[in-house]
Amino acid sequence: MDLNWVLAGISLSVPLILAALGGLISERAGVINIALEGMMLFGAFVGVAVSWWASSPWLGVLAALVVGATVGLVHAWFSITVRANQVVSATAINLVATGLTAALIPTIWGVSGTSPSVPAFGSMEIPILRDIPGMEQVFTTLDGFDYVALLAAPVLWVVLYRTAFGLGLRSCGESPAAAASVGIDVIKVRYQAVVLSGVFAALGGAYLSIGELDRFQRNMTNGRGFLALAAMIFGKWKPIPTVGACLLFGLADAYQLRAQARGLDVPTELLQALPYLIGLAALATVVGRASAPAGIGKTYVKG
Amino acid sequence: MNKRFRSTAAVLAVTALALAACGGDDDDTAEPADTQAAEEPADPPADEPAGTTAEEPAGEPADGDYLWVMVTDQAGLGDQGFNDLAWAGLEQAAAEVGGEPQVIESNEQAQYVPNLQQAVDSGASLIVGVGFLIADAVSEAAQANPDAAFLLIDAVAADADGNPLPNVRSVTFKEHEGAYLAGVMAGLTTESNLIGFVGGIEIPPVVRFLSGFQQGLASVNPDATVESAYVGSFDDPAKTKQLTAAYFDDGADIVFEVGGAGGQGAYQEAAERGSGLVIGTDTCKNQLAPDNYLTSATKDVAGAVFTTAESVAEGSFEGGVANLGLEGGFVGVCEDTFGDLSQEIQDAVNEARDAIASGEVTVDPGT
Amino acid sequence: MSGDLKATSPIRLLEQLISGEQPYSEQGRGRRLGASVISFLGVLVAALVLATPIVYLAGSNPIEAYGALLRGSLGGQQPIAESLISMTPLLFAGLAVAVAFQAGLFNIGAEGQLVMGGLVAGWIAAEVDVPAPLHLVTAILAGFVGGALWAWIPAVLKAWRGVHEVITTIMMNFVAFSISQYLVKPGGALVSTTQPQATERVASAAELPRIWDPTRLHAGIILALAVAVAMWFFLYRTPVGFRFRMVGSNPVAAEFNGIATKRVIVQSLMLSGGLAGLAGAVEVLGVHRRYFDSFSPGYGFDSIAVALLGALNPLGVAAAAAFFGMLRAGSIRLQSEAGLTRDMVTVISGLVVACVAAQPLVHRWRARRAADRNGPATADPAPEEEGLASV
């Protein structure tokens, strides 16, 4: 147990946390979102493209959010207005995201596979906290995304469980008909939730490309969108446990990288599978039963 | 009404994406960069005189109607490794010998054979198959098309009885010899005597890099140790970065990355810390972290591709197996930055080079 | 009236038509089959139309591009063979996903099951001494068992612990990739002496024979089509299949009717895993002739789209797999003849799936038009589709 390990674990968790919370918002409102992977890729790509074009990572991250919202809007339109099968819609988004982001690298930068280096965020030093004994490393290593991700969970908890908006959102996921009967505009709430979901996932993608790194690479999310989905279900569609699940994955991953680096005499492949084996073991023993919001995946027709 | 507005917005979004594709594309045709890569020339190749996409070569032959085709493995162009290098070799061939380079990127392993066949059907003068995963497919395509000329990188093509094929030139590299020299440099540079090795996946070329490096290191600095670890893929820069960080946190001062495209994460970590040095793979990578770069264990895939293309143009192409190493300079260390090193290190590296050349030292590939 | 309206959804229509859930007159049957074929083709045409500006903007002549696509997928013996080869793993894996969906389960782990099936089949075919006439059959069955067992853990966790299958199957994927990497890494237990990241070549008795000289089309396609028909019969004509669909459409009612839902969960997910395992086995024994660590570019994930495009009906899945197979086979010429990158091909597949997603729009529009013709007072048709497995 050392601080570097924890910080590395957080860094590996943050994209998962952001995407998983995005998925949670959408699914609590009743719309399946397995498009997290594609939304992350779009966010990662646009973050880099705009940061490169405008020489400003801030504009990059802003553009990533806008694109995330737009992709969310597309998924919402298909899922809610068209009443398409939500898994089909999400699959389309994932495919287009994978293809388009990779195809645009050469059209924009004239090289394949990886963009050039672009302006990116570094770590953030927090003036006063930095001076707390023993905490210097923490408050000089973490970056803005880390704080956003870690604070997002409690904020989301408050929004979901302590506000009228959250209550409405959850009721749209559990029983849209009942929600409608008390005057909630189910369609509007679901639109808001899916768009917000895209924003979160895209932020997670932008973290990878201009927070943690400073370039876009073809398919750089590497399945994190799906892992985020798993973490969300692990956390039983609840914000705090979801973040806990993401941290579990991130810390286990950081641990296995460090264990390898220290020459632990265990096959590397076994170590690489460690986060998932721990997850499976936890699910089989202590975590157990989880049920999705009752109204999830079902189309809602205004009566 | 509201609903209609939303539909319109969604349609606009899709259109915007399409327009984005458009906006970028103009750039593409306007300014072909030297790594031009995945995008093929937009115009039909037939009416294009050779060489318009690359830098205009001097004295290009008029009869340069060669077609140089490469079939990538699944990593495709942009892998920062053998695919990119093979493409560079074909571009060089197009520029100096004439003709036109073309790439077919494989999306799946099951497409290797039809992709190679497509290259044959399009009348390629030379077909380059890149990577050891494509070896079976090259063997199959070469036996089905005995008149076509193939070059296989990083593996040996053979028939069912294990005999080399007459129309395939198989080229493998002694990565360990170049890595040995990098190990010598690292051994004389390290102060902490702890060096980290970051691999993508444990595959034979990666093992050869590691093996040679360890031997080179031990030859000049027996106290130094190398720890090795693998990311699990060649395309996860974020994880590669964290693995690099783990080494530096543990006190390593040099990291040797053989991480493919994901390896860029290693340079980023070193550059952010402002300390620690990275040794790269395949080509000089000093531009990725100029202040934190030691050298690369290089592998001149481009040179091998170019010379083979040249032999096709000269009519001297022949099949067979070549295992290329320090001799002829097909592996080595980054020359661009070599002069910046201390005289002591330069001398030691040159000494090791001579020792390998003379057979006084043999480097064990470890596989 | 309202039944008629509902029937305009091709998903439902195809299902009703082929399952024979409702009696149709021969005439009506023919008309409905026609409608679903038209609907299927409509999706494909719409996707190509939608892709046209993108193809154009990517610097390629769309007519030339679609010509290349067509020549590359249907223009002769070789292209047709390649389309069928590409179709085979997608059909098996698509059936795998569809069967699970039919029982109300979202098997996102087909990829891992496919890897395990291929690995086990490749191992049996290359390393294990089996009398020659039985070698091939043993290897294929082993692939089925390998995939089924890999799905067993998520199945049991789902049935007895209520653990959501999406999370377990996703994690089992990652574990499968690690195991595969481990076994064929340098010095690994199954690695070939000549070919890195792969097992030894399979014994010639264990190869799936080639069936259409001079192409490399192998017998896997026949097996795949036979399995598709068998799965259709199983789902719509057998009591067990009926129980699967019952649990999928309404688990509470199924339980109430005395169906052992837990057993159905385990059976359906293992059957699904077995079918995915077959995808791997057939690909290894038919195309590569040895297990490669990287042989699957994600067939298991692509098969989700295949299953849904095929409306979860095995025969529809076969049609969908055929289409995606053609797209993959044709994509080779899209690169070399039309100058499109492989990534643009992925974009086009995405657009196809998007057009599938947009289908309900068209059906509602048609329904509304029909309603306008037949008189007012007809409400919006019922939602086309219930939620699939919950995610």
Description:
The complex is a heterotrimer of chains A (303), B (367) and C (391). Chain A has one domain: ABC transporter involved in vitamin B12 uptake, BtuC. Helix content of chain A is 72%, strand content 0%. Chain A contains 12 helices and no strands. Chain A is globular, with a radius of gyration of 19 Å. The model of chain A has no long low-confidence stretch (mean pLDDT 92). Chain B has 2 domains: 63-173 and 304-324, Response regulator (Rossmann fold), CATH 3.40.50; 175-299 and 337-358, 3-Layer(aba) Sandwich (Rossmann fold). Chain B is built from 10 helices and 12 strands. Residues 1-62 of chain B have low confidence and may be disordered. Chain C folds into 2 domains: 1-58 and 341-380, no CATH class; 77-330, ABC transporter involved in vitamin B12 uptake, BtuC, CATH 1.10.3470. Chain C is built from 15 helices and no strands. In chain C, helix 5 (77-102) crosses helix 14, helix 6 crosses helix 13 and helix 7 (132-161) runs antiparallel to helix 12. The longest helix of chain C is centred in the C-terminal third of the chain and has 33 residues, at 342-374. Chain C is globular. Chain C starts with a helix and ends in a 17-residue tail after the last helix. Chains B and C meet through helix 1, helix 3 and helix 4 of B and helix 3, helix 5, helix 12, helix 14 and helix 15 of C.
